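Box 3.1 A note on notation
Throughout this textbook, protein chains are presented in two layers. The first layer is the amino acid sequence; the second is a token string describing backbone geometry. Keep the layers aligned when reading.
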Amino acid sequence: MKLSFLGAARQVTGSMYLLELDDYRILIDCGSDMERSAPREASTNGQTPAPTTPQPGFFPFEASSINLVLLTHAHMDHSGNLPHLFREGYEGQILCTEPTFALTNVLLRDSASLNQKRINELNASKKQRVKDRQVQLQKDLFLDKQVRETMESVVPIAFNRKFRVADGIDVTFIPAGHLLGAAHIVIHVEENGERKSICFSGDIGRKNYPLLVDPAPVPKVDYLICESTYGNRLHENLMSPEDALADIIQRTCIDIPGRLIIPSFSVGRTQALLYTLNRLYTERGFPPIKVFSDSPMGFESTKIYLQHVKMLNGEAKEFYKENESLFDFENFQFLESAKASKAVSNYGEPCIIISSSGMVQGGRVEYHVAENISNPYSTILIIGYCAEGTLGWRLLNGQSTLTIKGKDHTVLANIEKIDVFSGHGDRNDLMNFVEMQSPETLKNIFLVHGEYESMESFKATLAESGYPQVTIPKKGESFEL
């Protein structure tokens, strides 16, 4: 049995792992590499990939040679390259949970729509160099046709049920928290009379997160592939999401008649915010400050959460039973059209605007930030990770002026940050996940999906806790298990 690390190796995004069992090949996740700035044939983080047979396509393998794809959850850094896989000849199935299927469909369709817009803009140009760029983009970008083909091949799998995928190979999806439908995937293999087991963590959630179940226990396995996003740190905010958000709203919208702008990812984080706001207004008697949610994809994702109430945590199910709603409350409005989005700037009362993207890079949130960034009565609340160079990162680093869509803006608004809505478990949560395994029987832990410094720190923490067999693989590196 051979395991190859083709993505999220010594970096956060691009999760993709290839498990080869004699003549059967399983791809676990097929995510977009959000950090790729060099051509795809270049090495990552200065590390030279292990030798592979050169391939002319998008992947370092022949897509038609893959027998099965397993998907841990819907986020694009885990699912975003699936349409490319089908375009290059993959003809098999994708196994994932029912909510992952629905959310992945929303995310991929949105991405295909943006891709089509990019191509249409280039089509309208008469410049030859732009035409040449369009030809290249059509090779690099997937469109709606590939998304439809991808989603037609999905087979939804229930949690906690062993599923036989081939002779001597079965898989089990175990709740991971993090996002609706997210899973740890455990694979059992019988090879040459020997039974082996391997667990892919996916993204590990945190306990008591709004709406989501806690990460479930994982059985003992021989090999553990563990994410390490927060491997070197703990969450900063110890308050509950309700208390943290209540404090911000009190100071920014009640004590003073101000505006609160919350950049938020449409899938997962927006739903957690809306549910928390609903609880504040329903259970704590907050004044009904107007709340605008400005994201068409957020609207679609919220409907999916409502379709899967039975898969949410007990607290959310009880709240839904008592109030007949999770996200709908007094003075709440979804903004569907671009016209309605821009009209919010004329709303004269205190309000809360939730809009994507969470890093303030692209999406309608750029307009809301531009309209409010020079207003000292406005607050921009960052609730998640912002990659270096994004507008969100610049706000957090105290830049006094920002250029948004070619126009300079003086930063007079208040900038705040909380991490209670981060869907990733911190170092303690990661340790809780690993400590389900026995140091005596666990043969190796492979750390993925994290910055290299985070991985090194977490490796040291694991060694101190009695887990010396820890590997930090390079991109393209393979191991015999």
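The longest helix spans residues 98-123. The chain is about 30% helix and 20% strand.
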